[in-house]
Specification:
alpha+beta; Glutaredoxin; 4 helices; 19% strand; Arsenite efflux transporter metallochaperone ArsD; Arsenical-R_ArsD
Length: 120
Amino acid sequence: MNKLEIFEPVMCCSSGGCGSSVDENQMLITSVINALNTIDGYQAYQYNLTDNPMQFVSNETVSTILQKENTAALPITVLNGKVKKAGAYPTLDEISEYTGVRFMVTDQSGESDCGSTGCC
């Protein structure tokens, strides 16, 4: 089982779509997490420091990074227990490389070979 975890900074909501400023990177990551969770052999999680502080504390690697670099290290991307990226969200190409699952953004019309999620 492959496990992808994204440890995010303090936010008002986990989707990235709250308030007057929409975080497109976070919304894209949320779509990727949702898509990965539909594929056998994958588990994907998004942890927000506000809502899931114990996930940050209980992950020894993430906790150590935060003690050294503080919240500037967030977001942190972990695959199967190993840090893949810190300080920025991974790109779709990076997530594809990490997981072996090809992700791409659909155009405005929603047309692609990837279905309705916008990821494949």
